[in-house]
Structures are given as structure tokens and as C-alpha cells.
Amino acid sequence: MSPRPASPNTIASGTVAVQGTSGDSIHDVIAVPGFADGTVLLLARDQTAERNLRTALIESRQRYKDLVESSSDFAWEVGADGRFAFVSPRGALGYRAEDLVGERPEVFVEAPDDYAPLPFLADHPMETVEMWMRRADGTSACVVTNCLPLVAADGAWRGARGVCRDITGERDREALLARARHREQLLNYIVGTIRDEVEPADMLTAAAEATSRSLGARGSGVFRRVGKAAFTVAATYGVAIDDEAMDDRIGRLDGDAGAVELDVGGRPVLAAATHYRQQVNGAVFLWRDAGGSAWSDDDRALLADVAGQLGIANEQINNHERILKLSRTDGLTGLLNRRAFFEDEVPRRISRLNHDGGHAALLYLDLDNLKRVNDVHGHQRGDEAIVFFRDMLLEHTRPRDAAARFGGDEFALLLDRIPAAAAEERVRDLMARSVELQQFSGDDDRPMGLSVGVAFYDPATGESIDELVARADAAMYAVKRAGKGGYRIAEPAEGNAGGEQA
Fold first, then answer.
1. What is the DSSP letter of 9?
2. Is 358 found in the same domain as 484?
3. Rounded CA gap, 295 and 211, in Å?
4. Do residues 41 and 81 share a domain?
């Protein structure tokens, strides 16, 4: 609308919007009357750009205000007196804005002397400076700040302003990731150490050492269980600890509970059950000196991971031992088979006897008329007879002796470190018991019995294992040819005195 003078001699002013092809334009108009012919002088000034600029500035300020108030960052300004003159309305670090304004910023900074200069008092532009500050609840916060100094026209410092952002959560996450990576590196080292071992039994020893070194333990122990049997010590490293105290605690460990802390004789102990397919098959213990440092969350997490790997290793060792046992033993009796007896046990024991000068006796044993038992009563009855003899044989052996079944009706027994007289007495006792085998006989004409050939071993003769075996075998067949059901002492090796007896 055009301005109209209130009276013919009054100057009027107003704002006029003029429509144009590119939009409305705003003009300030002044109407000056007083001319003789009634003419009015109109003075117009285009205010479109200024109005638009003012509107944009207002919107910009409001936008900045909204962003500052909604941001997790906080803006601040420090005056020439070195005190907060402005802080974002929302406050910072748990403080209200009014709690901070008028205070010196260094009061809220941890170790402010470590900064030169303190960003709140910056005399030059500073970017991404990390500081540790105290929250209102007393906890620490890591903040990163960007700031600029405020300088007067004469170059005098008038304060500083900037923005701070709380990055404590980010730093915590970075620290967690770093710790996780460190645990992963240690776990890879431990697992790699285990896998580098060729012998399964050495895996646990390597694991005990690697775990102790990785976690700064003074000692460690790995326990293993086969089936429902009791836990046994499979590997140890470093300073020893009371095994019985460990045994008492293994049964209380839960395979799903992870690593737990114990106190054993004043020592801080960290323990975890090992398991495979939800079945506990062992445990791992670490200990430090009495009064030593406590175990951290990272220590517990790493040991839990190690326990998971050891559970697999324990199962692998169990499987290896089962396979090894199957390859070394007779399936029916559980005694050593021919290969294990002659390729492992006899050479190892003879080698020790040669070193120590001890004596031994090798017995070749054959069950008489076992075939008749199978023909008349069936193989199941024959198997029962073999198992019965196995039990009888074991009753006449000591833990140091080695018993074997070669298949069918043939057995062998190495009596380790025994004088000839004692060995022969053992044979006589066995022969006396062998009459109990007659209960399995196929018929009265061919009763079940036992034929035994005995060869004594003296390291002084230098006799080979093959020669020893040949003498025992020959003595046994001599009994067979003589009618079965007895024993014979083999001819002595060259250099020995002795004879034979039936």
C-alpha cells in the first residue's frame, strides 16, 4: 500500500511490496507533499536484500543455537579474566551452565599443568587437543577441544572460545577393542604353541608354559579326565602348588561359568574347567605368589578362551590314547598285543636290565585244547575261558611285569627284575591254578590246560631278544610234544649255568 500523508503538509513513510517477475521486492517509501500544484514527491529505497539478509541471519543464529543446545558437545568462551564467560545452555560434564560461568576452567581439568597452554586459555588456534576433565560426579572424562583465541585490535589477548566433545565412550570402546586384540594375540600364541607339538601329551605341557607366561603366573597346572575316572595332573609349569588342594576344587568348577578366582594357601588362583560337548573333561589352574596382584577381567576372559582350546586338546589326547591302546592291546583281554610286546615293552625293559644288570624271565604260555572248547561249546564259551585265564595270569604278575596275548591260545609274560628261583616259583603257582581251566573243557578226553616255556635272561650273556624269544618258544613246544599240561625251563643262554625241568 502507498503511504498517504495525514494532511496536505505532512510527510508520510511506509513499506511497500512490489510484485515482479522474479518475486516480490520490498521498498521503504517516503511521501513528501507541499507542492503548489498538489504534487507529492515519492522517495523509495529497495530493502529487499537487507530484509533477506536479516532474515537469513536470524535463521542462522537460531539454527546455530538449536544445534549447540541439541549437541552432545558444549561450546564455551573464556573472558580476559581467564574465567568462563559463556557455556552452552545445556551445561557440560554433568554441570549446569551457571555452575561453570565465572569459574576458572583449570579447576575442572586433571593435571592442567601438563598443557602448554591450556586450551581454555589458548593464545593460538588449537585443534583436536585431548584433555581429561572431572565430571560433576567425580569421574574422569576424556574430551577433545578445538579453540581460537580472542584478540583485540591492538593485539591484546581477550580470551578464547571453542567447542569440547566428550569422547570417553569412544576411548573406552577403543580400549576394549585393544584389549580384545591383545587377548586374541595371546590366545593365538598359546594355540599356536599347542599345535606346534607333535606328541599329544606334550600339547598340555606347552599350553601350561605358554599360558603362564602370557598371564604373568608363577605356575600352572592342567588336569585331565578320561571318561568317569578321577582327574589327573597332565602338565605343570613353574612354582609347584598342592595338587590335593587343586583336586578338592576341580569338582566344583562349572564348565559354563568361565574362569573363577580361588584362594589356595594364600595364593591368588585363577581356574577354569575344560569341556568338550558340554562335558567337563579337565581343568586349568594358574597361580601367583601369596599377596600377588589380583586377576583382571582380561585375565579371566583369556583363561576362559584357553580352557575352551584345552577342552578340545584333552579330547584329542583321549582319542589318541584310545587309538593307541587299540593298536597296542588285544581286543578281548586288554593285554598287550604281539607288536606292542615285542617292539616296545620287551626291548625297553631289556635295555634297562642291560644298563642296571637285573635279571628277568620270559614265559611263553599256550592254552591246551582251546579249539575243542570252541568246537563243542561255541566261541563265546571259548572267549570266557580266555578271559578267565587272563584274570588268572594278572593275579600272578606285578605292575612292573608285562603280559600279552598273541591271538588265539598264545600268551606271553615278561617277569621283570626277578631271580630265577622266584620266577620258577611263580610258574609253579600258575600251573597249580591252571587246573581251574578244566571247567571250560570240551570233553574229558581233551581237558583244557596250560603249557609253559620259560627262558631266564641274564644281561651278562649278551643274548639278543630274538634268541631269548626262541628259547622260550622252543621250551613251550617241548612241553606240547611231551603231552601238554606242564612247564619247561629252556636251555640257558651261552655263559649261564642251568638245566631244564618238566
1. T
2. yes
3. 14
4. no
pLDDT tens by residue, 305-332: 999 999 988 888 888 888 887 888 898 9
Would you say residue 329 lies in a domain? no
CA distance readout (Å), 184 to 188, 211, 279, 315: 6, 13, 25, 23
Residues 361 and 417 in one domain: yes
The band of 500, judged by pLDDT with boundaries at 50, 70 and 90, is: very low
Please tell me what DSSP assigns to residue 397.
Answer: -
* Residue 497: predicted pLDDT: 43
If asked whether residues 85 and 144 sit together in one domain, one would say: yes
Q: What pLDDT is recorded for position 502?
A: 37
Of 105, 132, 166, the residue that ends a domain is: 166
**CA–CA separation, 486 and 453 (whole Å):** 9
Sign of CA dihedral 344, 345, 347, 352: positive
Domain C-terminal end among 324, 351, 381? 324
What confidence category does residue 202 fall into, taking pLDDT thresholds of 50, 70 and 90? confident
* 349 and 450 fall within a common domain: yes
Strands 140-151 and 157-166: antiparallel
Indicate the average pLDDT of the chain: 87
Q: What is the CATH number of the domain that holds 422?
A: 3.30.70.270
What is the CB-side half-sphere exposure of residue 340 using CA atoms within 13 A? 17
Q: Give dist(CA 133, CA 112) in Å, integer.
A: 9
| Tally of domains within the chain | 4
Residue 58 lies in a domain: no
The Cα–Cα gap between 164 and 160 comes to 13
Residues 377 and 264 in one domain: no
pLDDT at 15: 81
| Per-position DSSP letters for 84-153, written without gaps between them | EEEE-TT-BTTB-HHHHTTS-GGGGBSSGGGSSS-GGG-SS-EEEEEEEEE-TTS-EEEEEEEEEEEE-T
The domain in which residue 393 lies consists of 338-489
Q: What is the DSSP string of 325-370?
A: HHHHB-TTT--B-HHHIIIIIHHHHHHHHHHHT--EEEEEEEEETH
Least confident of 95-104, 191-200, 240-249: 240-249
Per cent of the chain over pLDDT 90 is 54
Same domain, 31 and 130: no
Question: What pLDDT is recorded for position 72?
Answer: 52
By percentage, how much of the chain surpasses pLDDT 70? 91
Is the residue at 400 inside a domain?
yes
SS3 category, 425 = helix
The answer to whether 337 and 385 have CB atoms below 8 angstroms apart is no
